[in-house]
Amino acid sequence: MKQELSKNKDVWAGVMFIAIGAAAMFIARDYRFGSALQMGPGYFPRILGGILILFGVAITAVGLKNSEKIAGRISLRAVIVLPLSLILFGYLMSHVSLLPALVAVIWGAAAAGRQFKLLEVSLLTVLLITLAVVVFVWGLRLPYPLIKGF
Amino acid sequence: MELFHNLIFGFSIAFSLQNLLYCFIGVLVGTLIGVLPGIGPLATIAMLLPVTYGIPPVAALIMVAGIYYGAMYGGSTTSILVNLPGETASVITCVDGYQMARQGRAGAALAIAALGSFFAGTVCTLIIAMFGPPLANMALKFSSVEYFSLMLMGLVTAAVLAQGSMLKSLAMTVLGLLLGIVGTDVAIGVKRFTFGFSELADGINFVTIAVGVFALTEIICNLGDPEETAVFTSEVGSLYPSRQELKQSIFPIIRGTSLGAFLGVLPGTTPAIAAFSSYMLEKKLAKDPSRFGNGAIEGVAGPEAANNADAQCKFIPMLTLGIPASGVMALMLGALMMQGITPGPTIMTQKPDLFWGLIASMWIGNLMLVVLNLPLLGIWVRLLKVPYRILFPAIMMFAAIGVYSTDNSAFDVYLAALFGILGLAWRMLGCSPIPMMLGFVLGPMLEENLRRALQVSEGDPLVFLARPISCAFIIVTVLVLILMMLPAIRKRHDDIAN
């Protein structure tokens, strides 16, 4: 029974909504509620949070009735590496310059896949970087330094 | 005739060199992503939106629209030739289209798909031109009370008609509303839900969410599935359908167009749903239903017309009322707002060049697509040979640049990564991100209208029922909710949507 619950799609979804709704209401507790005539900043968020909790409860109830399993295979590698490569891109863009950032995101993305052929990825990187520079820096004149200082 | 003058005006705008160029780029990119599986119009438009900031709004809208309906054309090409739908909307075309290809009639299928889509495109251009202005005129008389009820109706209808569990879609809508509220409250100036991040003072950038949830999540999911290989058919055969095939296609095309146009105006339906519904309709009306699944031309003609009609008519609520009827429309709404334009009934009076230029260019785009697709077939098919492992780093790169360039902010990129993971969680839990997107885009406006409506009514919530138009919207909302809960209709809807 416990095993089933831990994979129950609707129960998890419902619990998630309850949590988010509760969090919203909690954070909004400091915002003035006001009245219907003069809605304060907390009016809408708290009502929405409450509605979300209600939906969450309903969904959880549905989940307890029928048990639909969470399905689908997920590549753990993709889940970790892909967002990381994006984060790395953001960091390098803001602290260094465009080229390292592009290398990071292209290599990082490729690394998240199942096949990683060094030559292929390197060629692809060169190609994509050229494309990006032509389209974005020369074409659209985005003001990004290619290498630090340029 | 005013309609005539307006259309001429629109064409004069659409035929400018710049707008023609952007139309061409749009339909080309659209066909490209329509052909390639693993990337769809939603993700593409999200990524390219920042690019549109630098170009004039008319050109931007024209290009983005081109991408949208271009993808409908591209998707059918691969469905027919290779049994691989490049686009969800083209899935149903695979059934009979591919069979026709195997019987050596691929050319006819492709031609009918293109012609059916073009017919739908032309008719819908006229529909928008005819019904847009009266609709907008009606909406000009709306006050915040009617707007609130209208938006509520739009959001609820979209959630209810969307794929998947109705409860979850409604919950996602509320979540979207909450996400839309993040930032500084316009009326009072209080920072809400910003967790101390100054970058969030202006709210979450919608490109950030869109790219995260639609592009990043999609790639993560695709990397989990084993790679499919395309099955190629040999000959395309003659591009000319036989007289009989033409005759058989006329009514399905007309029916498909009507069905698609009707569904197009409804929030929440997608071109895929329109295509599928058309298929079911044709099968039901056919004299010999057993032909379906074995290469019945009606199974290609109807759905193709329907998906194009739906895609184009989705613009109507957005342009005339400011209500996005789908995820893509929500993005376009966001794009317009970024350019300082508030979509809604005032567009027609304040920026008529935008409205009529867009409409005229939609027809031109359809024309370009018919001319483009058929000769360039070979190229599109060859593109399918590009393995996904080469494609997705490119998508990641465009996505990354797109998000960063919106505000030159690394924070946005970090957020996008977060939303990519969240999007994955939502997908695994069966929660559709599209209602969330709609809620996100409309959230601040919904609250604003609620606030004003309550001020006007001096705190009386019954004002929404007191005013007739608003009352009508509320009644429709409740009706839709009740109808969807009835088991019989629920089942039909679930069958079609899933």
What would you note in describing this structure?
The complex is a heterodimer of chains A (150) and B (498). With 150 residues, chain A is mainly alpha-helical. Chain A folds into two domains: 2-65; 76-139, no CATH class. Chain A is 69% helix and 0% strand. Chain A contains six helices and no strands. Chain A has helices at residues 2-6, 9-27, 43-65, 76-95, 98-112, 118-139. In chain A, helix 2 runs antiparallel to helix 3, helix 4 packs antiparallel against helix 5 and helix 5 crosses helix 6. Chain A is flat and about 55 Å long. Chain B is an all-alpha fold. Chain B has one domain. Helices cover 75% and strands 1% of the residues of chain B. Chain B has helices at 2-14, 17-35, 41-52, 57-82, 91-102, 106-140, 144-161, 166-181, 206-224, 243-265, 271-285, 298-313, 315-321, 327-338, 346-350, 352-373, 377-383, 388-407, 410-428, 433-456, 463-466, 468-485, 487-497; strands at residues 183-184, 191-192. A two-stranded antiparallel sheet of chain B has the order 1-2. In chain B, a hairpin with a 6-residue loop joins strand 1 and strand 2 (191-192). Chain B is globular, with a radius of gyration of 22 Å. The chains are: A mainly alpha (150), B mainly alpha (498). The interface between A and B is large, with 71 and 64 residues.
